[in-house]
């Protein structure tokens, strides 16, 4: 399926991409995730642990930021724009497969995408699932008397390895954002240039 | 689609928890073997990559050496004492090789510790008949630990001066740390500075925060690790 050439978004105007509520959800989630990752590193990487110390405080910060991590998204459900975006993220069209294949093979040229491209869709649902797994295993490690003892060692194992995976994926997510100032502007100001929208999200009809 | 990926991730997570014991054994043996041949030390940063982890409960720990280190022995004793590092080194040394097991899960196999038996220091101080427990203080200013007198007198409890056949480094709790071989490693207080004989066991730093006071490896804290001693 090729991107439709009719009715391209006007290239010089700004296009509304995210509402205030959506930007707040992203910002709050990013902040909580940031605290989670930084405290995790301070608990885990020996050199950082040696530098920071204060283990009980760092543990408390990590536990609470982790526990609160799903809250912004849950609160965002009150926003219609946010719910609509969740629907967009959940919907997988034939163009998404084209986008994914072209991205995986690093083919040049435009890739078809609606408001969210296939990579963003997979990232969003994977990070949501991974966050819930981290929350579940984290709770097992936190409230040690609630679950049988074998579970806790297993939970620690999953928590450790998934943490490493999330770290890598998150670095990719941030790396992509660093490479695309207009995408960042979209999340900062709420609007993007029509030219960018037409290039990156040709199937998106705002 | 999004929902499927999300549920799939959740399912994999649950599967991971179920399969963890098997996976973990495999990972440990693989990474353990890899760590032996890894000059970069990067395997040490992977989960179950082997080796010690550094835990401190304070923001910074003062450094002590042969000139300014002191270990006091006091409380319910007839002859309170203060030892310098050289005086401790001059006492008969015991070397033990056991696994180290942390309550958070990591285990370091066959780690040599060397030092003075705690029972020797207690005997030298003359423990009074009313005494039931021993309390440990650390020069990080925060960490504390306790043992019952009976536990403290065990032959596998040392005031350790050396680890892995080297003088204890600062990050491993040097110059002197406690070494309680049969218990989870939080009992082996780093940066040991004081031994006080008391009437009853007072919970230590992590024990105030939920860990078991009697921390036998494999029989406490809800864990079933292989005993270390």
Average the pLDDT over all residues of chain B and give the rounded result. 89
Q: Tell me the CATH superfamily of the largest domain in chain B.
A: Oxidoreductase, molybdopterin-binding domain
This entry's quaternary arrangement is: heterodimer
Question: What is the CATH C level class of chain A, in words?
Answer: Mainly Alpha
**Can you tell me the CATH topology of the largest domain in chain B?**
Sulfite Oxidase, Chain A, domain 2
CATH architecture term of chain A: Up-down Bundle
The whole-number mean of residue pLDDT values of chain A reads 89
Structural class, from secondary structure content of chain A? mainly alpha
What series of H and E elements makes up the topology of chain B?
Answer: HEEHEEHEEHEEEE
Order of strands in the sheet with the most strands of chain A?
1-2
Question: Which shape of chain A, going by the Cα principal axes?
Answer: elongated
Number of DSSP strand runs of chain B: 10
* Beta-strand residue percentage of chain B: 25-35%
Number of helices of chain A: 10
Strand element count of chain A = 2
Helical content band of chain A: over 70%
CATH class of the largest domain in chain B: Alpha Beta
CATH fold assignment of chain A: Fumarate Reductase Cytochrome B subunit
- End-to-end separation of chain A in angstroms reads 20 Å
| Count of DSSP-assigned helices of chain B | 4
